[in-house]
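Attaching the record inline, Q. Sequence:
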Amino acid sequence: MIPSTPPHDPLTWRTIDPLLCRAASRWASRRGIHCFFGVISRLGDGWFWYSLIAAIALSGGGRGRLVALQMLGTGFVAWLLYRSLKRRTRRPRPFHTHADVIARAAALDEYSFPSGHTLHAVSFSIVAIWWFPFLALPLVVFASLVAMSRVVLGLHYPTDVLAGFSLGAALGAGSLWVCSTLIPAVV
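Structure, as predicted:
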């Protein structure tokens, strides 16, 4: 008689998410890696974005003040959206679920889905780049690093980050559409 082997889970996001989190956690065991991404994540808490919004408001004249208000409004909607989704989905963070995933930074709240850092980074970047295209390279790099930091630091699954990216892109584009509809002369 041939011994039976247990069936293997197919590669799905349910199996890939924890695998990627474990791999990222092992990679982040290097001090330089988790320190670098810790700084990026801390800046993504809001410090970088508040500074950018202030710089745009102070240096961009009337247009800059409008863009800063648009970014603040977009940020507020992003905050409401991700807080509401986290309360509804209640997905535990990877470090709560998997013993071999280590949280290398403090979580700002209890749940992981979606990544609020990523949602804000993408939506703010889209708005800022629309108005100031010369900011594209630094903002795309920074937003990408913020998104990576969330998985590397053990705080989010890759699907949390993908959801944050998708929601942030939709929110950023929606913000541009609303502003172009409300204030067509500025656009």
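The radius of gyration is 19 Å. The helical segments are 13-27, 31-59, 61-89, 94-97, 116-131, 136-152, 158-182.

More tomorrow.
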